[in-house]
Design a protein that fits this description.
Elements lengths: L8 H9 L8 E6 H7 L1 H8 L2 H5 L10 H14 L3 E7 L11 E4 L2 E5 L6 H14 L3 E5 L14 E4 L1 H27 L1 H4 L2 H14 L1
Parallel strand pairs: 1-2, 1-5, 2-4, 5-6
Antiparallel strand pairs: 3-4
Helix pairs in contact: 2-3, 2-7
Length: 206
Amino acid sequence: MSGCANQNADARQFMVRKGTSKPRKKVLIVDGYNVLRSGSRYRAIRADDEAYKHDPDYAHTRFNNVRESLISDVTAFAGALYQATIVFDAGDNAESAGKTERIAGVRVMFSPFGSSADKVIEKLAHDARERGCEVLVVTSDATIQDTVFGGGVDRMSANGFSLEMDEISEEAELDRNVATHRKATIADRVDADTYAKLIALRDRKR
């Protein structure tokens, strides 16, 4: 049976570009709608999302702020460590054929008609565990069978993930502010003569 690292060619290529020979050995599976409904970060976005007011389950809305935010967050959380999949429940949609697409390196799946996201997540987690992967499932859905967890499969709550992303976003914003401040205050950190020489050097290189 193939190992976890052999299941994703994109992951292998990513790691080669990063200069390491070890592909990602961890799998991240996110219960999409459960996180959007239960995570405080996404509830706040939903409150300002006009699409949500007209279509609370996003049954017909392809692009919207909150779902795009989740995909962006999962991309940031996964980094080079996880092969990430977000599963959205479309089991009640007679037109759903279980579509899968890749967005920003994240596999986005919609469960097929008649099959819940829970069942898809359970199968993905089981299959990944059988391949020897470490698996993290992000969900607060109690209906996902407890038998899925353990033996290399861990659970993170929807709000736990939400709070983690709030912290990551705050740290990133702080880093950006520090970088901007350093760039803006170079004239304040050197004497006038040195600053004039820097300006002259810059102008000569143009």
